[in-house]
Amino acid sequence: MKFRVKKIAAAMAAGLGVSVVGTAHADSILFPYFAVSDTVTSIFSVMNMAGTKPGNAATTLRYSYWYKAGASAGSLSGTCRHIDIDRNTSLNDVVTFDSSGHFAADPSVLFEPTTRQINAKYPADAGQDFAVMNELPARGFLLVDNSTLLGAIEGTLQGEVFMIDYAAGAVWGYAAYNAAPTGVAASTFDFSDSAERQGEVLAGSEQANAAGVAPASGAVPTAVLPIASNVSTGDVTTKFFVTPIAHDVVSSTGAVVPALAPYQDRGDLAAAVRLDISAYTGDSLDVMFDRDENPISGVISIPVVCVGGVGLDTLLDANILRQYGDFGGWTAIRTVGAQVLNAPGGANAGARTIANNQAIIMKLEYNVEGSFIGESFRGAFNNSIWLRRGIRESVVRDASGNLTIGSVNAGSADAPIWVDVADDADQRRISAKQ
Q1: What is the pTM of this model?
Q2: Within 13 Å and on the Cβ side, how many CA atoms surround 322?
Q3: Looking at CB atoms within 10 Å, which of 67, 185, 281, 399 has the fewest?
Q4: What's the pLDDT at 50?
Q5: Do the beta carbons of residue 91 and residue 50 sit within 8 Å?
Q6: 11 vs 411: CA distance, rounded Å
Q7: Which of the two residues, 184 and 363, has the higher pLDDT score?
């Protein structure tokens, strides 16, 4: 959440300790998870509010898929493969496409026959096919950017996706993540917690300790419904879709060690997740409460490379499942931390590793059999939740717990200034010091 405050001259920026940036730079969006299979496809929509080069000439957007396919689609440890495509676009264009081509032949553009393609055209014979995820099954993440544009401005790309199981009759989706601006001409693909807008990324501090180890992130509470993988009568399958997020690290010397280039645009980023209710019990081994408020212990940490679906049942000991799986309870999930973020170097200032203490985590609860608490119905159900906690929790705050100012738009004495408000404790306080 941000307040727009006017009547603050850009000249004050130096005194406020903020960076002054222009507005001409690339924009990019992240779809942190998609899936395709024999019975599932992902339908993307991308809106482009910049869209043109000087002279109103048509230009392109870059679609960068990082994915695991075939026998490796369900792997948590394997790295992702990569494919880039450039596709036509125009000012204020929207394109909706089926990434696997199930619902449309080449070029897989939906609701837009060629007779209506006046500005942005997508002829299949000209290399404009969108159905590139045709090695099934596959799961991964998608980056879309306009860094090939001249004069593109921040906030000019938006997107949505929904995944449809056309065999079971179930759908879930979300809006793409557009990070805060970086102020540079080429996209840095920085989707880290320090650039988030609405708590999209779960993170611990970016301050590494003397050993280069990441502090654990705060855990996000979430309900546990009866677990379908339990040996008895569980109804609901719960999975956490985890996408590790690249981020900088501040070493013990104060040096900033940047994430490996090009930040999110790579397929080997790693993070780990676990369940943790220690904030409520004081015991670091506690992972879940049953429905009678009894804490249950048994820590299992699971690493994920690039992207992966982590079953709730795999984060719980078999004895816990046997005793509590039929009933559920509640838990909290976080990134693990305790990973070496920097390679050995002078005073912890070595190069960044692929390990990260940040991730986007989405929770999906589903039943494809059309049953809930023993009652059958037509179709299936999906419930998806993008898990969030606070805002920019990795960023150092002042003594009052407030964030610092993010950026100022220079250019006039009446330039607007964007001010971040405080974290969960008090969303009303403004962090600017004047």
Answers
A1: 0.84
A2: 3
A3: 399
A4: 74
A5: yes
A6: 9
A7: 363
